[in-house]
Amino acid sequence: MKYLCLVYLARERWHDCPDHRCAAYGQLLQQQGRLLAAEPLHPVETATTVRVRNGEVIVSDGPFAETKEQLAGFYLIDAVDLNAAIRIAAQIPPAKNGSIEVRPVRELDLGGASAPAANA
Amino acid sequence: MDQPQASPRDVVEAIYRRDGRRAFATLVRLLGDLDAAEEALHEALRVALERWPADGVPQNPVSWLISTARFHAIDGHRRQRRMRALDDVAAAALTATEAAPMVVDGEQLADDQLRLVFTCCHPSLASEAQVALTLREVCGLTTEAIASAFLLPTPTLAQRIVRAKAKIRAAAIPFEVPAAAELPLRLGAVLRVVYLVFNEGYSASSGDAVLRHELADEAIRLARLLRALLPEPEIDGLLALMLLQHARRAARVDADGDLVPLEQQERARWDHAAIAEGAAMVERALAAGRFGSYCLQAAIAAVHAESASAAATDWAQIAGLYDVLLRLEPSPVVELNRAVAIAMRDGAQAGLTLLAPMLQDERLARFHLTHAAHADLLRRLDRRDEARAAYDLALQFVQQEPERRFLRRRRAELDD
User: Fold this and answer.
1) Closest chain B residue to A44 measured between Cα atoms?
2) Does residue A27 form part of some domain?
3) Which of A10, A23, A107, B123 is the most exposed place for a label (fewest CB within 10 A)?
4) Contact B183/A at CB under 8 A
């Protein structure tokens, strides 16, 4: 069996748990051969919602899944930027029936050495 | 064009006013970040003030500003990362090309401005953030100016811009003009932002009237810029629509700040040069065939603007244009306006027949203009008691003070 473990945090406690502890636990699971994928996310205000209705791609800001819509699955994708991610998300079949929330993955902050390079 | 006696500061300022935002847009593409581009541009302006008095103004000052800004941004970034040996190797290889002055041609500058517009109006940003960011980054308005135009505290507006920039960074919203397949929808979002800016300036509902006219002017400038960058009939349509509406600004409000309805406006006070420009523009756009709702709205505004008097208005043509608009973009408001036009063409009774189902419509029944139109038709048929009741309903739903005063006046006129 595969299980998806979803991490929920209040916005103000987003960084309460230090990233290195999450990274260490991920490493432990990996050594045990139990980790398939794990990624920390940017908070909800960075989210974009993609829907396809009548063949038209509708993009809106925020995590606007309707309250009756439940998390039904996920695709972890690699895209060059948000526009490319939106194009991929719009092709996910349930985009026609529900909503796809596109949320950027962040990097764990493990101190200066492996911080993401600034874009210059 | 530069006066020989102009001080270096004046020259730098003049070049910044004329080309600052264009240089900024190119720097955003080169550096991939709004804040980095802003900082780098400021640094380049500082260097210009230092060097131009001695060295003279460079032949291509915009390219000079961009090259200098880019060099300083990369240099600063490198100094931050000096600790990493690998970077120094890579940096040494890069330096030769980086230091060489770049020549940025007009086409590239235009393309970069268009990228920036599409980024600021990206649909993954909240609508009010799109408006604020466009005015700040593309038009170069200060945060204070935008805040006072929208009657918001400056910190609120500043935070809105900071959050939008953070999202652009975190979600990697690219600086690019959308592909052809996505262009119509994305352009729709850009035009909506431009029209929001315009309407904020146009509805003299409250606040500083002067600042609001500036917003309308800014929206027209933005549309002109877009039109120069991208040949699309709907851009012409929106620009024409704004020119035609803005042409009436002097006659829309009387000395007491009260709204003057279209049929009572003093047509001599309309800006006839703007009307001629708008009308010719919409005519060309309609002839191109691929028109949308902005072109149709502009065509309706042109019929009003070009008729010599209210009585001479060609209501048949206006009703016909509303027919097309309703088919293209069905909305309760368009339906209501169409009914009013038909009432002008075929008589008040015909209007009442069309209005009857709208008064039952949930959305339209809460809209003050539905009841105002109803009241006006009843007034024209001399059904005064019913007209009074309709004005009362309109007054119940009206939001803006000048409109409320106008409806009160109209209701009082029934007693004459």
Assistant:
1) B167
2) yes
3) A10
4) no
Question: Is residue A109 situated within a structural domain?
Answer: no
- Contacts with B74 from chain A: Cβ below 8 Å: 120
Name the residue among B31, B163, B173 with its Cβ closest to that of A120.
B31
Query: Which residues of B are less than 8 Å from A102 in CB distance?
Result: 171
Best mutation target, B74, B81, B165, B167, to test chain A (most A CBs within 10 A): B167
Cβ of residue B176 closer than 8 Å to a chain A Cβ: yes
Q: How confident is the model at residue B95 (pLDDT cuts 50, 70, 90)?
A: low
How many structural domains are present in chain A? 1
Of B302, B356, B298, B345, residue with least CA distance to B320 = B345
- What distance in Å separates residue B324's CA from the closest CA in chain A? 22
**Nearest CA to B183 among B115, B259, B100?**
B115
Residue A114 has pLDDT above 90, yes or no: no
Q: Please tell me if residue B184 touches chain A, with a CB cutoff of 8 Å.
A: no
Contact between A117 and A31 under an 8 Å Cβ cutoff? The reply is no
A62, part of any domain? yes
Measured CA to CA, the distance from residue B58 to residue B61 in angstroms comes to: 5
- Evaluate whether residue A115 is within a structural domain: no
Contacts of B387 (CB under 8 A, 6+ apart): B375, B376, B378, B379, B411, B414
How far apart are the CA of B398 and the nearest CA of chain A, in angstroms?
A: 30
User: Each residue of B236-266: pLDDT tens digit?
Assistant: 999 999 999 999 988 988 887 778 888 899 9
ipTM above threshold 0.90:
no
Query: Domain limits at A51?
Result: 2-104
Q: Can you state the angle between helices B315-328 and B293-306, rounded to 10 degrees? A: 170
Residue B206 CB-half CA count within 13 A: 7
> CATH number, domain at A87?
3.30.70.1060
Q: Note the pLDDT tens digit of each residue in A45-100.
A: 999 999 999 999 999 998 876 778 888 889 999 999 999 999 999 999 999 989 99
Global pTM reads 0.82
Q: Which position has the higher pLDDT, B263 or B206?
A: B263
